[in-house]
Amino acid sequence: MCGIVGAIARRNVAKILLEGLSRLEYRGYDSSGVAINNLDGVSSHRAVGKVQALRDKFTAEPLDGKIGIAHTRWATHGKPTEANAHPHFSGEDLALVHNGIIENHEPLRRELKAKGYEFKSETDTEVIVHLIHDALKTEPDLLKAVQNVLTKLHGAFAIGVVKNDENGRFIAARKGSPLVVGVGIEENFIASDQLALLHVTDQFIFLEEGDVVELTRDQVTIFDEKGEVQERPISVFNHNVDATDKGEFRHYMMKEIYEQSSVISACLEGRISETKVLTSCFGAESEFLKDIENVHIVACGTSYHAGMVAKYWIEDLAGIPCSVEVASEYRYRKVAVPKKTLFLTLSQSGETADTLAALRMAKELGYLTTLAICNVPSSTLVRESALTLLTNAGPEIGVASTKAFTTQLTALLITSVAIAVENGLSAEKEQELVQAMRSLPAYINDALAQDAHIKVIADRFANKHNALFLGRGTMFPIALEGSLKLKEISYIHAEAYPAGELKHGPLALVDEDMPIIALVPHNDMLDKLKSNLQEVAARGGELYVFADKETDLHNEDNIVFTEVPKVDRILEPIVHTIPLQLLSYHVAVVKGTDVDQPRNLAKSVTVE
Ligand code: G6P
């Protein structure tokens, strides 16, 4: 949450910063701002709302300079007002942008007020810039002043600092929030995410916890937490820049929904043969698989739903216990860890604060090993986990996760089968599952073929205020994910229940105003689910049934039927996800909401 960009170059950096902010809008879009350092001093524009509002200010009054920092905000402390927008200043000459949360901002604010500092915002950030200003009174070197101040901060931060009489450099630092350095030719950059800098470089240095960086045009000097200079490797970004383009689609979300067949292929590539899961995909240390006796999965949001599906797969295929928990709960309780337990995190971004904190805690708890299933190779989660399985979904820009979710499921299926093989799964069954996986991309395309039909039924949701999703078995987490998608982007209140729980409460909500979305694959739960649907129909509820032909369900008076391809049971949760993504997308479009950047949300949640 919040995105920062910084640049030092021989050219005017304003355009570079604005483009960087647009690419970081997925991290927050409550307000944005830029501070540019030039020979006349540090000047700044800030604006409430999306980066376009800031661009408009630049059009009306351009700022020109060769060093600058910029920020797009997801409000935590203080409302999304211009006064709370970054950069924050201390005096006229010192400006700072910050991503993260300073937990001890209240005592620090009191100390600074006692020294005569006046606060212009309600943010926790403003204390940092005043502290640096104060430190400069006794330590005139900006780098050292920043290093001194960082020791006083509790919480998470990535910062960029510019100062007027520092025309040849700017300073950045990270601890607990992501920050990369972009290395150019006679120009250098910082950003919360390398995507923000792909228009200027493809060479990146990933900073480590506690790193402080001095950036000049020609040099990047990194100091670790102890103040010692460190060399960190440069990595070259290997995704196509076009991945951040909407192409022919109106929204990123739709583009990403349609990419699922190809990214699932990319996720499977090199991980399965004709007959087997290739355990080499877990790296050289894949022998950990044979020792696993338990699995603990920890994740947030959509990733958590993927974990819930994996629990069914692992317990069913491998016959070993698996528990799934949201990271924000796991990290604050005493966890009993059975021996030989795998700690498995799931994260699209690999930067989610709660998931990272859970991993750090787990590392002290005697787990067998830690495995991250993640979409971002350079993320903190990947770097801090012992083992990684990348989902290879490519950059996901829409805030509501789509292709990142189905590739997580694909990677989890690979992992579940690999664990099962070590726990007695027959070679014949393994081959059957692998062959099913190979047909997955084609099934995804078949499911997408219902797009036009789903667009039509989406109209009927436009004036609804509530919706209820039902599923059984692996369809229950998919119902949860479908309801999350609907509420995230169309702002319709939606809940999901295991269909068998209907009679224990939610049935009381059912009337003709309540659409019920039921996920009904043709499997051994079918008859039970059909009875649940009868319970709804008997109360006048309007049923939207997503089922395959073999279920013998079809359009009736109070049933709107959508066909989902008939697939192997193991693939049902992945394939049934597609129509629900399309439904929430089309409902949001009908309602006219901001599909890619829904209100109050952010793609990457790097604060608690
Ligand atoms: C945010 C995003 C969700 C995502 C969750 C976990 O809330 O809006 O789409 O599922 O974070 O993110 P992660 O990157 O850890 O999967």
UniProtKB/TrEMBL annotation:
One of its GO terms (molecular function) is glutamine-fructose-6-phosphate transaminase (isomerizing) activity. Its EC number is 2.6.1.16. Residues 2-218 form the Glutamine amidotransferase type-2 domain. It is found in: Cytoplasm. One of its GO terms (cellular component) is cytosol. Residues 284-425, 457-598 form the SIS domain. It is an enzyme of class 2 (transferase). SUPFAM superfamilies: N-terminal nucleophile aminohydrolases (Ntn hydrolases), SIS domain. It catalyses: D-fructose 6-phosphate + L-glutamine = D-glucosamine 6-phosphate + L-glutamate. GO terms for biological process: amino sugar biosynthetic process; carbohydrate metabolic process; fructose 6-phosphate metabolic process; protein N-linked glycosylation; UDP-N-acetylglucosamine metabolic process. It comes from the Bacteria. The keyword Metal-binding does not apply. The active site is at residues 2, 603. InterPro entries: GATase_2_dom, GFAT, GFAT_N, GlmS/AgaS_SIS, GlmS/FrlB_SIS, Ntn_hydrolases_N, SIS_dom, SIS_dom_sf. Its main location: cytoplasm. Keywords: Aminotransferase, Cytoplasm, Glutamine amidotransferase, Repeat, Transferase. HAMAP family: GlmS. Catalyzes the first step in hexosamine metabolism, converting fructose-6P into glucosamine-6P using glutamine as a nitrogen source. Homodimer. This is Glutamine--fructose-6-phosphate aminotransferase [isomerizing]. It comes from Marinomonas algarum.
